[in-house]
Amino acid sequence: METLTILTLSILLFSYTFIAEEKNYCEDSDTNMQWETLVQEHPDDMEIHALHALRLGLCFKVDRGDLAVNQTTEIFENQELIRSFMVLK
After folding, report:
1. Which of 1, 28, 72, 84 is the most exposed place for a label (fewest CB within 10 A)?
2. Residue 9: predicted pLDDT
3. How many other C-beta atoms are found inside a 10 Å radius of the C-beta of residue 5?
4. What distance in Å separates the CA atoms of residue 21 and residue 19, rounded to the nearest whole number?
């Protein structure tokens, strides 16, 4: 249940960080700190580490120009939905 709560919060955190005016929140220090705190508070939760790694990779691809912010948002949200359904089963 804790993982589901954390996943839900991370969905909201990541979605919020990318939706508002398609600003690139990958460079937002507050958002980055929140993710680092989440990882530190749950060092054994591999789902959080996987989502954090996905976020880092997507941010890298946005910075490099491979993907647009809206594309990375879609990728992350789709992954989040898949993980949420797997946890509920």
Report:
1. 1
2. 59
3. 10
4. 6
